[in-house]
Write a structure and sequence with these properties.
This protein has 87 residues and is mainly beta. Helix content is 7%, strand content 43%. The longest helix has 6 residues, at 38-43.
Length: 87
């Protein structure tokens, strides 16, 4: 059967500092928004903005994500091939 996840090479650029990263991203076709790991943000010194209210995260079985709520956001451009999307 093999691996069924869809990974794709992307180029990320922060809006405020224009830091650039080349990463492999997991494409989740059922996801309603784009997500980035807290660890990646911390390791790369990426600036975030606090949300006024946290967003509760639920996983596929309806339970709350053990990593907690979304409390911050980051604005980035994601480039896949020659297509650029602001995330």
């Amino acid at each position: 059967m093999g691996n069924k996840q869809l990974d794709i090479k992307t180029h990320l650029t922060t809006i405020d500092t224009t830091k650039s990263f080349t990463k492999v991203a997991l494409i989740d076709l059922g996801c309603t928004s784009s997500c980035i790991s807290r660890k990646f943000i911390q390791e790369n010194g990426i600036n975030t903005q606090k949300l006024l209210f946290p967003i509760t995260c639920y996983i596929a079985n309806g339970t709350i994500n053990k990593s907690g709520s979304i409390t911050d956001v980051v604005n980035m451009n994601m480039m896949i091939g020659d297509h650029i999307k602001r995330i």
